[in-house]
Amino acid sequence: MTRATLAPTIRTTALAAAQQLSNQVLINGSLRGTAQSRSFDLHDPATGELICQVADAGVEDVDAAVAAALAAQSAWASRPARERGKIVAEGGRILAEHTDELAALLTLESGKALRTECRGEAGNVADVLQFFGGLASEIKGETVPSTNGILTYTEREPVGVVAAVLPWNVPLMLMAIKIAPALVTGNAVVVKTAEETPLAVLRIAELLNRVLPQGVLNVLSGDGTGCGAPLVAHPDVKKVTFTGSVETGKLIYGAAAQKLIPVTLELGGKSPMLVLEDADFDRAVDGALVAMRFTRQGQSCTAASRIFVHRSLHDEFVAKLTAKVGQLVIGDPFDDTTDIGTIISRVQLDKVNGYIERGKAVAGATAHECGTLPTDERLRAGFFGQPVVFTGITNSDPLAREEIFGPVTCVIPFDTVDEAIALANDSDFGLTASVWTRDFRTAMRTVKALEAGYVQVNQAQVASLGISMGGVKQSGLGRELTLESMLEHFTHRKSVVLNFE
Ligand code: NAD
């Protein structure tokens, strides 16, 4: 049997698993319904079919989840750090055994392709838990020079109850990079899932609760105003870690300011890719395919949605890039021949199409539409979008300024390296950037000049464990994925002076 013919079986199994999670949140170690029993429908973005009901948690559920977390936190914090790390790592081992199941659930709810996206994302969750679990013994303080008879030192204490608010684009990975460092450092967590992707995150939490003490990890689903806002504002929540849009990030920052609690904000991007005159041309074209995250429908904060190409290479670059993007197969996310699945929702598809129409209306612009939308009757109601590469637009057009979060990029020519740097920096965002050149000195000069939290040369890969990830300007506050960020964001430093003079 080929992979493609297996697809309906995988989907049917995922649908059954989704229905088991229907109307459930996870509080104090167990799945349960919400206080008001309110729910909303979750539809398969590829077929429009109803998947299940999602629990629409409200204030009473927020109170219950935070109370459970608060009750569990101090006992969890008093365990030896390595013991906590081993438990979190063991959670990773359990998840690794469930990678296929989690990948299928994610495919069902997100519409991202199983082969190119969801298997990898589900597999990485275990890796993240094992990475942070292994760092548990590194939660160290410092000693401060003192005179005889006096010992001055610092130690790291957990912040308490952490609220982790998630978006829909890479929910499993983003959940993992928030909960793993928070738990290892002795905090308890309440996760708020995105409206569109509650299921695989909830299943991960259910699996992790096999090894975590009850109450240490809780998951709520619901909308931003009814569930997210009361969670962030809850007096017992002492830290918020958020990934999502700039607008919501600012609301959360404001709410946190009322309580004077710290926040980590991973927000939007409009990442530039700079292809210099001496770049390895074919490598840069292939790199653009990855950089733009086309197989994720461009739904990535790090998508290279502005590609600046030296004028001498521009036309050939556009021709090769559009030809390659056009070869990607858009179709059933469960089919193993599919490269590109669906956009997350009708709202998001309409937003993306709105940008495409605005771009087409710009004088002198050309929309290079790539690939073919699926014609399968079963997928007729799906939110499929064709990748579009724009030329003939400027860096000041909305298409080049605003985050589209869809498979739409623009290629803009430049003449000098300084001009390319100025164009790249002329943006409200500053998350990631990439430079493509064979010259080491030019690379180093450009890296230094670019306003971004993360710059890569001759590659534009997704974030990696151990490499700080986060933005400057409107792209956010704080960093994730490293030991330093774990200590900085999930612990307080306590200074101690012992005077036996
Ligand atoms: P969003 O801001 O609409 O929603 C994110 C989460 O916030 C959801 O769970 C939502 O319910 C919740 N929320 C909404 N209003 C809230 C409020 N007032 N208080 C508390 N919670 C609230 O974002 P989205 O559309 O789900 O995700 C897409 C965005 O995420 C894009 O802008 C993208 O750039 C960003 N993103 C950033 C990174 C990064 O690492 N920088 C990574 C992935 C996605």
Task: Write structural notes for this entry.
This protein is α/β, with parallel strands linked by helices and 501 residues long. The protein has two domains: 4-267 and 476-495, Aldehyde Dehydrogenase, Chain A, domain 1, CATH 3.40.605; 272-465, Aldehyde Dehydrogenase, Chain A, domain 2, CATH 3.40.309. It has 16 helices and 22 strands. It has helices spanning 3-20, 59-77, 81-96, 99-110, 114-134, 171-184, 199-208, 224-233, 246-259, 281-291, 314-326, 346-360, 398-401, 417-425, 440-449, 483-490, and strands at residues 25-27, 30-32, 39-43, 50-55, 143-144, 150-158, 161-165, 188-192, 217-220, 237-243, 263-266, 272-275, 306-310, 366-369, 388-391, 408-414, 429-430, 432-436, 454-457, 472-473, 476-477, 491-499. The strands form six sheets. The protein has a seven-stranded mixed sheet with strand order 14-15-16-13-12-18-19, sandwiched between helices. A hairpin with a 2-residue loop joins strand 1 (25-27) and strand 2 (30-32). Helix 1 (3-20) crosses helix 4 and helix 4 (99-110) packs antiparallel against helix 7 (199-208). The chain is globular and about 75 Å long. The structure holds nicotinamide-adenine-dinucleotide. The site of nicotinamide-adenine-dinucleotide has 31 residues, from helix 8 and helix 9.
